[in-house]
Each structure stands twice: as C-alpha cells, then as structure tokens.
Amino acid sequence: VDTALEPRLSRLFSNRVIARYPAFEEFYGMEDAIEQIVSYLKHAAQGLEEKKQILYLLGPVGGGKSSLAERLKALMQR
After folding, report:
1. Most buried among 5, 24, 36, 51, using CB within 10 Å?
2. How far is Cα 17 from Cα 57, in angstroms, rounded to an integer?
C-alpha cells in the first residue's frame, strides 16, 4: 500500500510503502511488526544470521502478540 496516495495514511506511515500480507489481513495496526517478522523469517530461511536468533514478541497487554504467535504457528503447520 503506497501511503503517500492517501493523506490519512501518509501521516501515520510517513509516506512509506507498507506491505500487506493476506495471511495477516485480520491484524490491524501491526503492519510494521508483521513486516519485521516476515523479513526475519525470510532471512532465517535463507540461512542468514537470523537463523541463529530467537524471535521474541514484546509489547503491551492486549497488543496481539498471542494472536500473532498463533497465526504463525498455524501457517508453519500447513
């Protein structure tokens, strides 16, 4: 999504292009976190440094960490 095309989104995302992933379409407001997780998993799959690191979800209560972890688990079990 090119946020520069919509004034409301451009204020939120500083005119950046935000990737939307169909597997995570039910998660709103977590675009940056999801993009970081996808990047982490992509690099880990390529055998880069992330392969040796732990994915740690940190955030406030009710922030969607458990839901995101459950979605990742379901996707990995496919």
Report:
1. 24
2. 23
Residue type present at position 37: I
Q: How far apart are CA 42 and CA 18, in angstroms?
A: 17
pLDDT digits (tens, 9 = 90+) for 23-76: 998 988 888 889 899 999 888 889 888 778 888 999 999 999 999 999 999 999
Distance of alpha carbon 58 from alpha carbon 14, whole angstroms: 23
Q: Are 28 and 64 in contact (CB under 8 A)?
A: no
State the number of CA atoms in the 13 A half-sphere of 10 facing the CB: 5
